[in-house]
């Protein structure tokens, strides 16, 4: 089972990267740029076959995909070289990979809202025929009573129960609103609560004692809650909703990131800001799989949006950095020296790899 999960995660990440590279590939072909190779995985090459002018290869290292375009890495005087195309065409070729991430996210969200429905945060007064909202934990504060007893983000709270030591009476409530939990916890601070949780297909109970005087902004249990409803749409509404959700998340992610950074700078221990490398992302994907395919696909869509936003950053070695050089070329009316551009890109690529290595080490430490 573990091996199957690892293979699914690897396949998903490689597929996501391959679709990104496909965006570059299709736009390059559209503008007449020669594509020398389209590879799945990274060299050394296991197998390759040439169709037309392009080699399609399968490579040993299963960590992504790549497209090798004439003139992209080495200077070429051919009219079919990347560097011989107009600034607008080169910009579109670079953006093709970024846009493909957003397209993938929109397609996934379209499938989810049309087939199983998409979990959506709703207010406590929300009501719709055939829809049964539930309360889900969206964040667990570090060092909180909830974290101490193993409560995790993504868990659904079904019931709360207390055996009051003072009143010597037992009280139990079924949960379908966030306010019910908040009121119940506040009224029973310092008492031992039994929390009935749903984690994927598993049901469990944990005992937790809410703090009487919690740190500011955390709450007695140390959890952030959301009332969630699974909303489903008919097939002709699904594409619109898929695009709408993608745009909403594209807007929400930078806002949440800026807020988390501000809280981190202010000294908050629970800003929610946590960098993850491939190992951390793989662990998160494994947890999502345990919660069901719906959760896994939603996470894949969110990773796709994150990758789109990350790639448009004006950092050399990323698509956004390449676009920055094109903007400089447009302003200067002549291209940046290719060797200088390659040196700057290579330096930043090395820094990104080093950062990924550091983050991966921290991911491993968190695992153990």
Descriptive overview:
- This protein has 368 residues and is α+β, with helices and mostly antiparallel strands.
- The protein folds into 2 domains: 2-114 and 296-367, no CATH class; 134-231, Pdz3 Domain.
- 48% of the residues lie in helices and 22% in strands.
- It has helices at 2-30, 87-115, 145-148, 178-187, 238-265, 278-290, 293-311, 319-332, 338-367, and strands at residues 35-51, 54-69, 118-121, 134-140, 156-163, 170-174, 193-199, 202-208, 223-231.
- Strand 1 (35-51) and strand 2 form a beta hairpin.
- Helix 2 packs antiparallel against helix 8 and helix 5 (238-265) crosses helix 7 (293-311).
- It is elongated and about 80 Å long.
- The two termini are 21 Å apart.
């Amino acid at each position: 089972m573990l091996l199957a999960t690892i293979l699914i995660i690897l396949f998903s990440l490689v597929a996501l990267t391959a679709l990104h590279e496909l965006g570059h590939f299709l736009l390059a072909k559209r503008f007449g740029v020669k594509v020398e190779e389209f590879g799945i995985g990274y060299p050394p090459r296991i197998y390759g076959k040439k169709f037309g002018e392009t080699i399609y290869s399968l490579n040993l290292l299963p960590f992504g995909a790549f497209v090798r375009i004439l003139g992209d890495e080495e200077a070429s005087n051919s009219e079919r070289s990347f560097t011989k195309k107009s600034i607008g065409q080169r910009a579109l070729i670079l953006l093709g990979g970024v846009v493909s991430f957003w397209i993938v996210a929109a397609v996934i969200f379209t499938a989810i809202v049309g087939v199983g429905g998409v979990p959506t945060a709703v207010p406590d007064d929300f009501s719709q025929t055939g829809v049964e909202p539930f309360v889900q934990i969206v964040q667990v504060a570090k060092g909180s009573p909830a974290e101490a007893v193993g409560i995790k983000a993504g868990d659904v709270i079904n019931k709360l129960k207390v055996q009051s030591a003072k009143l010597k009476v037992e009280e139990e409530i079924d949960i379908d609103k966030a306010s019910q939990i908040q009121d119940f916890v506040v009224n029973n601070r310092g008492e031992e609560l039994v929390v009935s949780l749903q984690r994927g297909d598993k049901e469990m109970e944990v005992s937790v004692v809410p703090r009487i005087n919690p740190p500011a902004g955390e709450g007695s249990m140390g959890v952030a809650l959301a009332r969630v409803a699974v909303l489903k749409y008919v097939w002709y509404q699904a594409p619109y909703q898929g695009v709408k959700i993608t745009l909403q998340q594209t807007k929400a992610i930078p806002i949440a990131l800026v807020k988390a950074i501000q809280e981190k700078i202010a000294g908050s221990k629970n800003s929610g800001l946590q960098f993850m490398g491939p190992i951390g992302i793989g662990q998160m994907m494994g947890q999502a799989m345990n919660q069901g395919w719906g959760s896994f696909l939603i996470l894949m869509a969110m990773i796709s949006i994150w990758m789109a936003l990350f790639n448009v950053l004006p950092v050399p070695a990323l698509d956004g950095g390449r676009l920055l050089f094109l903007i400089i070329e447009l302003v200067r009316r002549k291209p940046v020296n290719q060797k200088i551009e390659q040196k700057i890109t290579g330096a930043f690529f090395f820094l990104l790899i080093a950062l990924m290595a550091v983050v991966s080490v921290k991911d491993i430490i968190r695992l153990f």
